[in-house]
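Format notes (please read before filing issues)

Several people have asked whether sequences and structure tokens are stored in separate files. They are not. Every record keeps both together, in the order shown below: the sequence lines, then the token lines. Line labels are part of the format and must not be stripped during preprocessing.
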Amino acid sequence: MVLNWIWVGFFIIAFVIAVIKLVFWGDFDVFPAMMDSTFSSSKTAFEISLGLTGVLSLWLGIMKIGEKGGVVNVLARLLSPIFTKLFPDIPKGHPVTGSIFMNIAANMLGLDNAATPLGLKAMEQLQDLNQKKDTASNPMIMFLVLNTSGLTLIPISILVYRAQMGAAQPTDIFIPILLATFFSTIAGIAITSIYQKINLFNRTIMLTLGGAALVVASVIWGFGQMDSILMNKVSTSAANIMLMLIIIAFILAGVRKKINVYDAFIEGAKEGFTTAVRIIPYLVAILVGIGVFRASGAMDMLIDGIKYGVEACGGNTDFVGALPTALMKPLSGSGARGMMVDAMTTYGADSFVGRLSCIFQGSTDTTFYILAVYFGSVGIVKTRHAVACGLLADLAGIIAAIAIAYMFFG
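Then the structure lines:
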């Protein structure tokens, strides 16, 4: 229901603003621009789904080998102590915990192409446990929030963009991104736990979060000892080596179990095509709504309004130039990426706004895209508190990013 009203709101707000611009300002281009955005956005949605087909088939095939080879069950048993606390409705040792772990690990390494199919597989398994097939369950919402909070240890793509835009030190935003995305994830877990009445103050969760904080600190320290060139090489190599090791480990596990690895892969890969086709309508809906909202000028008006409000309160408005990236990120990953590049082009890659836009890009993930793809893949239409939790986690990431940017670059 929440997603329904948000989607309707995109069109109503866009239409009202377009009428105002036409009647009072004589802007005859606004309606053609809005209609052009509907066609281009729907085409983009189809191209995204089509592009996912191959990688979905690959990773769902690999996951099927892992399932039959027993790897997923082993991961499920290892993660059972912490997952039974965060996902109390999932039976202890259920294979879905292994799938969730694989998805989170891929996200942390910045491997988006691997994370999406692994996440879709996990959502499918969660749907099998779901009693109300059209309504998001508590585990589904917690899993979605973990994805939208965007915990990433190695933001390779952002570093590459900064290098291309001529930044003197492309990796100077690495530690700020790591800190901002960590706060976003912790906030997402805490907010969702409050909604779902999950007690976080227990020994298992506190030790796990403390261990995660230690790992983050170690990564920060380790990469802090490297120059930018070495950091890029090490992070890229580490991510891809880990990914290849996962594939090899799953195949070897299948061989050890004496299953037909090839047939298992084909069985899983067939699911990739049907899943990619199933998400097309959901992606078309959400991307067209966002496209119309942008084309009407509503986003620009929102930014101007925020700037006016901050100035009226006597606040520092240096961060406002980077807000388009932050506000676009929950709506469109490619749109936010474009906003980030535009900010670096306009203000400079090493400007405060340019750096902050990069931190925004890396601190959270694309909430509505993930919601449309993950829930759409299993036919969920009643999202309950998923949107609220996801957006609150995004807000925490935005606030953390602004504070951290002022601390490092202000």
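For reference, the curators noted about this record: The mean pLDDT is 84. The CA atoms of residues 33 and 295 lie 6 Å apart.
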